[in-house]
Specification:
The complex is a heterodimer of chains A (about 290) and B (about 425). By secondary structure, chain A is of the alpha/beta class. Chain A is about 55% helix and about 10% strand. The longest helix of chain B is centred in the N-terminal third of the chain and has 24 residues. Chain B starts with a helix and ends with a helix. By secondary structure, chain B is mainly α. The chains are: A alpha/beta (about 290), B mainly alpha (about 425). The interface between A and B is large, with 54 and 52 residues.
Chain lengths: ~290, ~425
């Protein structure tokens, strides 16, 4: 984090611990090492098989590949195979004008990447680190989902997953709505139609699940997590935990905090559905005339 | 439980919610990917995607990468002008151009990503500035972004969404002098009103823009005349409709794309007027040019309807052949993917063609699909057209031997008598118009 602060970039959230760079030029590797400093370790591998081995071994890793040229079908297939083997690992594709093609970027994108970074005109440090932050956010979202494996209504799942990916920063309803490709009002209507709680509530739970994930890590304080997730203060996070779980943070903090929060979320959703269904039952008619 | 983000996006998505958090999600999407024009310009889309990915990580609006932007220059030069007050050489202007190009290429979701990121950056920038002039400039930018969001929603047929975005645009700039955002929002709301069949509301909005006191820029006056041409035509006032279309055509000098769009709409007026030759010439002019679907589809529908009318008046083999060619062209376009409004137009035209050729089964299939689209997206006016056609299909089924009813021609002479325009001359001019 120190290296990031030194360049004046305010990156609260960490970057992936290990970057697995596949068949990259030594110059690019050196540049990446300089940019990430102590925040990430850059491991250089020659091909897809070695990368696959590394990715199997390391939990918090990010794949770094170069966007292939138009005729580099072997490289393209290699990367596509790697993405299939490790779909949960975030990936950064680096566009190098001398090696890559624009079409390659589109094809590689279809195979699944998290970010595209261009080295044209320069390999920008700020840009690369921001891309790594996005990768980290996506990685955390995937890990939380796999860890908790929640059973939620189908309509809620894409919204919550998107909110989880964005939840390292305060998320507005407008932002979630734009990820869904609609106006905020339409998203509210959609939630009503699907009998879901409000978008703001979904965002709140996403932020809370991320907070729980970080609080499980040894040595993390509430203040530290509040800082990572850009809460105005530690009290704000404490209050949110209290509001959503009806318990003080000290009472809910434990080893499987994210999982227990998730179970609580499932319960709350079931309760919400029950209330809505009750509301929609026809009311008994009042009879004003005595039988 | 799926693992990849591609799966996350694909597996649980409902019909009308496709989550695209970042450009990389758009790259993985199968749906919403390039229409027929876009396939030929993969490289251009890749550049837009790379640029869109870059703006997502920016913390202030910086001009797009010069080399990448230069590769888009040819495409951007073909676009009709969008703004009157924001300089195209400014960073904001350049990003808006990129979004417009994406929209023009049929990838509205990618355009939306760029617009949303611009809006995010403008909000960030607004917090930093202290001068009122700068803040007003930023507000204008935010208003433009909302109006553009509205346009994107309107084009894919989400009229409620579009109206909400236009209203947001108006709210943001309500205290500012009228510049691009306000006019864009006014025109947008008029077009939404047309989509809903509320012609008086649409007319009111367009007339407001044409008031001398409004002092709207030239391009917005063109839009206003276009809206009036459409509403007058729908109200059966063909003379005034043609007058407004010509006014728009004259004002839009130097904008070939807009002029082609206007030729399409004037051809429709001519067809309604009964001058089929002038209309056919106009439609052919549009169809022979390289235009986006939103201009091509109405002209193709118009050309197909002309064949239908000719078939009703005097059936001929050549006419049927032309009808078949147009129908086939539409089928290919639908297969490749059209936005809701365009698909609806295409399906209605196809159904009319099928009716005149007595291919009732395939026509009914088209109509069913059209009815579903009209209902889903709230195209109320088109719902009426669908129902009218359904009634004609039922009548044809009940009396299979009867020839399709020829529609009564409008009383041309009475219209001409009321007109202050030299009508035959105006139609000749349309028939002669060339680029």
């Amino acid at each position: 984090m120190l290296a990031l602060q030194a360049i004046g970039l305010r990156l609260r959230q960490p970057v992936p611990a290990t970057l697995v760079a596949v068949a990259m030029s030594p110059l690019l590797i050196a540049q990446m090492r300089r940019m990430t400093g102590n925040a990430s370790e850059v491991r250089e591998v020659r091909d897809g098989n070695s990368a696959s081995e590394e990715l199997t071994r390391i939990a918090d890793a990010c794949l770094i590949v170069t966007v292939p040229g138009e005729r580099q079908t072997v490289e393209m297939n290699d990367i596509a195979r790697l993405r299939k083997l490790h779909p949960h690992v975030s990936a950064v594709a680096i566009y190098v004008p001398s090696e890559s093609s624009y079409k390659g970027a589109l094809q590689l994108g279809a195979a699944g990447i998290t970010e595209i970074v261009t080295t044209q005109p320069v390999f920008d440090e700020k840009d690369f680190l921001a891309a790594l932050s996005h990768c980290h956010a996506d990685g955390v979202a995937v890990r939380i989902w796999r860890l908790t494996n929640p059973e939620l209504p189908d309509a809620l799942v894409p919204l919550l997953k998107a909110a989880l990916r964005l939840a390292h920063e305060p998320v507005s309803t407008t932002r979630l709505a734009s990820a869904a490709g609609m106006h905020e009002r339409t998203l509210r209507k959609y939630c009503e139609h699907e009998k879901l709680p409000s978008p703001q509530w979904i965002i709140g739970w996403a932020r809370l699940l991320i907070a729980a994930f970080y609080l499980e890590e040894p040595g993390r304080t509430i203040g530290n997590v509040a800082d990572i997730l850009d809460y105005p203060s530690a009290s704000a996070l404490r209050n949110q935990i209290r509001r959503y779980t009806n318990a003080p943070p000290s009472a809910v903090r434990g080893q499987s905090m994210a999982t227990s929060f998730c179970r609580l979320l499932e319960m709350t959703i079931r309760e919400h559905e029950r209330t809505i269904n009750l509301d929609q039952q026809p009311r008994p008619r009042l009879s004003l005339i005595k039988p | 439980m799926e693992n990849s983000f591609g799966d996350i996006l694909q597996s649980h998505v409902r019909d009308n919610v496709t989550m695209v958090v970042r450009t990389s999600d758009w790259l993985m999407l199968e749906r919403g990917k390039p229409l027929e024009l876009a396939r030929q310009i993969e490289a251009r889309l890749s550049v837009i995607a790379i640029l869109s990915s870059t703006i997502e990580r920016q913390t202030e609006i910086a001009a797009p990468n010069e080399a990448d932007y230069a590769t888009l220059a040819a495409g951007i030069a073909e676009l009709p002008p969008q703004l009157a007050f924001i300089s195209e050489s400014s960073a904001l202007g350049q990003w808006l151009n990129i979004a417009t190009l994406a929209e023009h290429d049929g990838v509205s979701r990618l355009a939306q990503l760029v617009i949303d990121e611009l809006m995010r950056l403008l909000f960030l920038q607004r917090k930093e500035v202290s001068s009122t002039i700068e803040r007003n400039y930023i507000d204008e930018g935010i208003g433009i972004c909302w109006a553009r969001r509205g346009r994107l929603a309107r084009i894919i047929g989400e009229l409620d969404d579009a109206a909400s975005c236009y209203v947001m645009a108006r709210q943001v700039v309500r205290k500012l002098p009228r510049r691009d955002a306000r006019s864009m929002a006014d025109i947008g709301l008029s077009l939404v009103a047309i989509g809903r069949g509320n012609f008086p509301e649409a007319t009111k909005g367009a007339l407001r823009l044409l008031r001398p006191s409004t002092n709207a820029a030239n391009i917005f006056q063109v839009h206003a005349h276009q809206v009036l041409a459409l509403t007058k035509r729908r109200n059966g006032n063909l003379i005034e409709a043609m007058g407004h279309a010509w006014d728009a055509f004259d004002l839009a000098s130097g904008n070939d794309m807009r002029r082609l769009e206007l030729i399409g709409s004037m051809s429709e007026i001519s067809a309604e007027f009964g001058d089929l030759d002038a209309a056919a010439h106009g439609f052919d002019t549009v169809l022979s040019a390289n235009v986006p679907n939103r201009i091509q589809v109405p002209s193709l529908a118009g050309a197909l309807r002309l064949c239908v009318r000719r078939e009703e008046i005097a059936p001929s083999t050549a006419n049927r052949r032309a009808l078949g060619v147009y129908s086939q062209r539409f089928k290919v376009m639908i297969k490749d993917g059209l936005v809701a409004g365009d698909e609806l137009l295409a399906l209605l035209a196809l159904a009319e063609g099928d009716l005149v050729l007595r291919q009732l089964q395939s026509g009914k299939v088209s109509l069913e699909r059209a009815a579903a689209i009209a209902k889903q997206f709230g195209f109320y006016e088109k719902q009426y057209a669908v129902e009218t056609l359904q009634a004609r299909f039922s009548a044809a089924e009940n009396d299979p031997d009867a020839a399709p009813t020829a529609r009564p021609e409008k009383n041309v002479q009475s219209l001409l008598d009321k007109s202050e325009i030299n009508w035959p001359k105006a139609l000749r001019r349309l028939a002669e118009v060339a680029f």
